[in-house]
Structures are given as structure tokens and as C-alpha cells.
Input
Amino acid sequence: PNSQLGGQRITNISRTKTCRVLTTLRFEYGDISKIPDALEAAKEEIIKACPKLIREGKPFRAMISSFERDCVEATINCNFELPPTGEDFWANREQMFLAIDRGVKSSGH
Output
């Protein structure tokens, strides 16, 4: 209903010039001591692979975020100087995920 829209903020994403990609990784509890190195390596790979990454003024984080029943969760939060739609967005997102994979693997995980 329209009454619910009245108090909400509406954003036209076609005019937005930046985007955020937030992803969650899951690790086994037995690997908890390796997670900080894996996350740091993932961040380094993202920096190399994603030239549109915003490193100042917006969060660029990779950290343990939750202890779940069967795993430890880590969150990687990146912002990019790209609109949140279109082929460039999706290509960058893929490069970010591939960079995370390279970083985690290079850390021996």
C-alpha cells in the first residue's frame, strides 16, 4: 500500500555511482587460527584485481563476523566506483569473488 511508502527512502539505482558487494564466507572451527591470514590475503587479491575498489571513505573490511552452530562466518565488505547495475558491475563482482578464492587458497586454506 502507498501508506507504507510514505516513510521510506527511495533510491533510483540508475543514478547511483557506487556499489557495495558484501559476501559471507564459512570456515570450519578447526581452521579458526588460519582465518585472519586467509582474509588478509583475500583483501590483497581484491586490491590487485579490482581497480575500482574504494579504499578510503567507505568500508573495506574482511573479518570474522559470526560463530554459527557448524561454522565460523567471515564477512567481506567492499565498495566500488561503479553503478550497481550493468555488465561492469557483474564483471567486477566476479573478479572480486575470484580474487577472494585466490587469496584464501594462497594462504593455505
Notes: The mean pLDDT is 92. Strands lie at 19-27, 61-67, 72-80.
